[in-house]
Amino acid sequence: MPKEIVTPAGSGKPLAPYSPGTKADGIVYVSGTLPFDKDNNVVHLGDAKAQTRHVLEIIKSVIETAGGTMDDVTMNHIFVTDWANYAAVNEVYATYFPGDKPARYCVQAGLVKPGALVEIATVAHIGKP
């Protein structure tokens, strides 16, 4: 099955050997997304809400570049550095998924760069090409 690399316009170079997203058989897989600017600097230091919004906007751009919408999201994998930020993450998250909610899980973990408070990876089913 052929796959298509999905890279939104203006994306920075990934920190490691991965693509922002891949699309195969109508499914979009969005890599773990951190609150980075295009130069891989952490943005909105100390602000879990702003970081979550930034991450979800990047995810949205990957899904839209692949031809889908946030309504097509079926699964989110959420990582937070501190449970104290869980409510803030959920507050912003709910605005991106106002209707039927995708499946998800959330775990506390260390993230690749100090200052990053949240990381989200996503799966979206946008239909077969």
From TrEMBL:
Keywords assigned: Hydrolase
Pfam families: Ribonuc_L-PSP (PF01042)
GO CC entries: cytosol
Role played: Involved in pyrimidine catabolism. Catalyzes the deamination of 3-aminoacrylate to malonic semialdehyde, a reaction that can also occur spontaneously. RutC may facilitate the reaction and modulate the metabolic fitness, rather than catalyzing essential functions.
Name listed for the protein in its UniProt record: 3-aminoacrylate deaminase RutC
Organism whose genome encodes this protein: Ketogulonicigenium vulgare (strain WSH-001)
Gene Ontology biological process terms from the UniProt entry: nitrogen utilization; uracil catabolic process
One function term, GO molecular function aspect: deaminase activity
Top enzyme class: hydrolase
EC number: 3.5.-.-
